[in-house]
């Protein structure tokens, strides 16, 4: 394996060369009651219903080692799963996967084991995301530096955002996009209480809420720039990086809107339909290249 070196050359890569399409609100890293690890999770149908109410265009329910396959008439249901057992927190999202790679390393996964798994996922054409790198026991950035074939890392996560670590990856010349995901296991308490659940489920959730185990939803997602919701087109734009990662402070806040993003020679062009408070361009070593208020 060759040592990583900083990016160099006379051309800047722009993932936004085709932004005259529709920005679709897409959520992935969502868990339902099908995987059996956590009791009384919401069903795929309940998750679809609630995310549809929040105006999502695409969702991918990524249960542990189970590929989603149902489609809603109102909401495009994108296939995917999360590799790795719960007692092994080295988890990987395979979005767009049509075949499952089993976890042959449930007790211990070395760097070589993980690399083999990623290689198999790439053969299936999936968009590969390293899950929650800030969570203890997960695939860390130190391991990430030595892996090949990873498309993105979950920089914005329920278990902690790792923006600075991601920037350091880019500083080393490692091409890897960032994603943002809710990692939904349970809906927030307020929403759970409003749902018409059986009594035993309501009691279970109230007990977990006493332990401050409320879930988070609808605050971490991506805006994907694509003219089609066909699998191949979504995968193409994901792998190209033709999307924006979003994290909202609270669910009730208005969703950000984008008109156009593009790079023209040495100029970055960004157009928004609404006013913004501030835009920050960050360069090498986390230095602020430009602030626009």
UniProtKB/TrEMBL annotation:
MF terms (GO), sorted A to Z: 5'-3' DNA exonuclease activity; 5'-3' RNA exonuclease activity
Span of the signal peptide: none
InterPro entries: PHP_domain (IPR052018), Pol/histidinol_Pase-like (IPR016195)
Name of the protein in its database record: PHP domain protein
Organism of derivation: Leptospira interrogans serovar Pyrogenes str. L0374
């Amino acid at each position: 394996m060759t040592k990583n070196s900083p990016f160099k050359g006379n051309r800047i890569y722009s993932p936004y060369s085709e932004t005259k399409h529709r920005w679709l609100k897409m959520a992935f890293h969502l868990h339902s009651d099908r995987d059996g690890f956590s009791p009384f999770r919401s069903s795929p149908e309940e998750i679809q219903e609630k995310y549809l109410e929040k105006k999502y265009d695409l969702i991918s329910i990524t249960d542990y080692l189970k590929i989603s396959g149902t489609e809603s008439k109102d909401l495009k249901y994108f296939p995917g799963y999360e590799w790795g057992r719960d007692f092994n927190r080295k988890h990987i999202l395979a979005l767009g996967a049509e075949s499952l790679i089993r976890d042959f390393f449930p007790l211990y996964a070395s760097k070589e084991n993980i690399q083999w798994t990623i290689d198999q996922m790439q053969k299936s054409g999936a968009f590969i995301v390293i899950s929650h790198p800030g969570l203890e026991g997960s695939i860390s950035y130190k391991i990430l530096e030595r892996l090949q074939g990873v498309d993105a890392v979950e920089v914005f996560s329920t278990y902690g955002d790792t923006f600075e670590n991601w920037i350091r990856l880019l500083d080393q010349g490692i091409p890897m996009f960032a994603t943002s995901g809710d990692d939904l296991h349970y809906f927030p308490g307020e929403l759970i209480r409003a749902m018409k659940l059986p009594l035993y489920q309501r009691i279970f959730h109230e007990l977990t809420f006493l332990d401050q185990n409320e879930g988070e939803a609808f605050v971490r997602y991506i805006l994907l720039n694509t003219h089609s919701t066909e699998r191949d087109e979504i995968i193409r734009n994901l792998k190209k990086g033709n999307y924006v990662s979003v994290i909202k402070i609270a669910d009730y806040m208005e969703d950000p809107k984008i008109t156009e993003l593009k790079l023209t020679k040495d100029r970055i062009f960004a157009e928004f339909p609404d006013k913004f408070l501030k835009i920050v361009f960050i360069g090498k070593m986390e230095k602020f290249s430009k602030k626009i208020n």
